[in-house]
Amino acid sequence: MNAQDIELFFATLKAANPSPQTELEYASVFELLAAVLLSAQATDVSVNKATRKLFPVANTPAKMLALGEAGLSDYIRTIGLYKTKAKNLIATCKILLDQHGGQVPGTREALEALPGVGRKTANVVLNVAFGQPTMAVDTHIFRVSNRTGLAPGKTPLAVELGLLKRVPPAYAVDSHHWLILLGRYVCQARRPQCERCAVRSCCDHGRTLKQPPQTAPLQS
Length: 220
Hints:
The chain is elongated. It starts with a helix and ends in a 35-residue tail after the last helix. The mean pLDDT is 93. Helix 2 (29-38) packs antiparallel against helix 7, helix 8 (139-148) crosses helix 9 and helix 8 packs across helix 10. By secondary structure, it is mainly α. Helices cover 54% and strands 0% of the residues.
C-alpha cells in the first residue's frame, strides 16, 4: 500500500464509522483497565458478560481489592485464565491504591509496571482513556496490517512501529479501532470477506482477486 492507498483506506473507514469505540463495556478508566486486563486471550463478549455482574459490585480498586482473589474469581471464572487474571487484577488494585491514589496512571511506564499489564493493554488504556495515538496490536490488527500491506511485520511490535509511521496523523487516534473492527467482521482469519470489503480497492491482497467487489457497510 502506498501513501495514496493508505489515505483512501482510512478515509473510507472513517466515513463508514466516524466515531469508533471499543466493544468492551466500561464506565470509568479503572473499569476499562480491568476489562482490558481480563480480555487477554478472551473475547470481548465473554468479558462483557462477566463484568456486567462484577462492576456493579466492584467498580473501584478498593471495592475490587475487598473481594480478594477468591471473590473476584467467582465473577470471572467463565473467562479463560481466570485464576491468573484474578491474582493480577487484585495485585494491580493494591498498587493503584498504594502508589497512585486509587487512580489509573496515564503513562506507559506506570501502566506496564502493573501486574498483568503488557504493552498491548497499556496501549489500549492510553488510547481509549487518554486519547493518545497508540497502536494496540492484537491478532486482528496483526492480520489486517500484514494481509493488506498496510504495515507488514513478523512481530506485533514490528507491526505497531510500522503503523505509527504509516497511519496519517488525522486518523491515528481512531485507527486501531477501525482495524480491529475490520479484522473482526470482514478481514477474518479463515475466510476474508473481500467480496464485501469497502477498502478492497486499496488493499494489496484485495487487488489480486478476480471477482468484482460487492461492498457492504462496515461494522460499527
